[in-house]
Amino acid sequence: MKKSIYIVLGGLLTLGFVGCEPEFDTPVTDEGFYTSGDADLSNYVAVGNSLTAGFADGALYITGQENSYPNIMAQQFALAGGSETFTQPLMSDNLGGLLLNGTQVAQNRFVLAADPTTGEPTGPIILEGTPTTEVTTSATGPFNNMGVPGAKSFHLVTPGYSALNPYYGRFATGASATVIADAASLSPSFFSLWIGNNDILSYATGGGAGTDQTGNLDPSTYMSNDITDPNVFAAAYSEQVAALTASASGGVLVNIPDVTSIPYFTTVPVQSIPLDAATAGAVNAQFAQYNTVILPTLVSFGVISQEEADARVINFSAGVNFPIMTDDDLTDVSGILQGPPANLPADLANLLGQLRQANNDDLVVLTASSVLGTLANPSDPNSVIGVAVPLGDQFVLTAVEQGRVATATAAYNATIHGLASANGLGFVDARAALAQVANGGIAFDGGLLSDAFVTGGAFSLDGVHPTPRGYAYTANLIINEINQTYNASIPNVNIGNYGTITLANNVSN
């Protein structure tokens, strides 16, 4: 069973490797050809989260930071009269891990492992080595790139956030400082603001294993995987825009993409369990009493509806099947099944408590690829996850959970667009742009940028954050908006000149 699962999923990682080849670059070097228009680009400050910082491959590291979209933009700004200096709180190496008093507290980045004989990619691995970035050693600022990995919208206005986030702790101006106050203290002449992704992303990447806090206006009570209340988001975001516009000639606000546009949620097929007819029949026999006795009984007692019972029926067939899974939005019947009339053993009752089979409306997250088809109990060959043991709820973003994410995202984006309009700021619809990348891709000189994991070129090996090429595409989107809104003529970059993923068993750059 495990081998068969890898046949289905493994094909995703053997389609090849997108390299970093220069593409027909013809730079214009005539001085004075480019202009900043109505924008003052002499002191550009970028505010945001990991996307702004240049996070990629599951970590923050020097090469990623050097290819952050703000740094790429700043290089183009310099061609149009902007400052030639853009500072970032660079890490100490290209490993990406973090040390706290010498103990590693954040893992190194991913690279794509290669078969030592054939050179074919075999899957992402964590890069070997001991990182040298010590959290307690402050980075000397000030910094134009104020991107803080892990930050949610309200974190940027939370005093003392540096104690909770080691990335911000490295360059915060003081123990009680806020990210937005530190950014505003730089008196930016122009700014970009891209924040809010993490307000829904951690809920989504955790398979909905959090709480939708809509209606709760106290973010201090939120857990890390919760969805931020839209009013909390709006208040924090409004404060940030007000602080940044106080000194700036202008700026650009960027909205929040749909989670369905990133490979973390679209790479692992929801149908991923290959069974032959004999095995499918044997498994169905195991669930026969559940389907024909237990579910109807629960309906007759009014514990669940007929609609829920229909959704919970388990049925396997010859071919590739949907896995069984736990869904925490279903009625938990485990306690009832332990009593009359079922009187099931506790372990069986718990297994059936919120059990159903996945369907085409579900999104299986990228990390499930290492779990599906493996044995929950190595000594029990029948304990196959997805067949006899349900895939955990944290590995599946259900349609109900997707709805919560979509509702919150729409509310955040309405706030962002409204504030851009009210303040005469540029607005970049990253939601629409990444949907384009996910649906057919974006053509560039000599290639196509898509959301395909490993091969598409847009996303790094964590399935969430862009590659340098993806960040270059983002930079162009923002530059185009600046040109339109501020009558500027800042040149785009050729995204084909930027790299994608690193194929190596052990590299240091």
From TrEMBL:
Any one GO molecular-function label of the UniProt entry: hydrolase activity, acting on ester bonds
Coiled coil (residue ranges): none
Signal peptide: none
Tree of life domain: Bacteria
Record's protein name: G-D-S-L family lipolytic protein
The organism's taxonomic lineage, starting at the top: Bacteria, Pseudomonadati, Bacteroidota, Flavobacteriia, Flavobacteriales
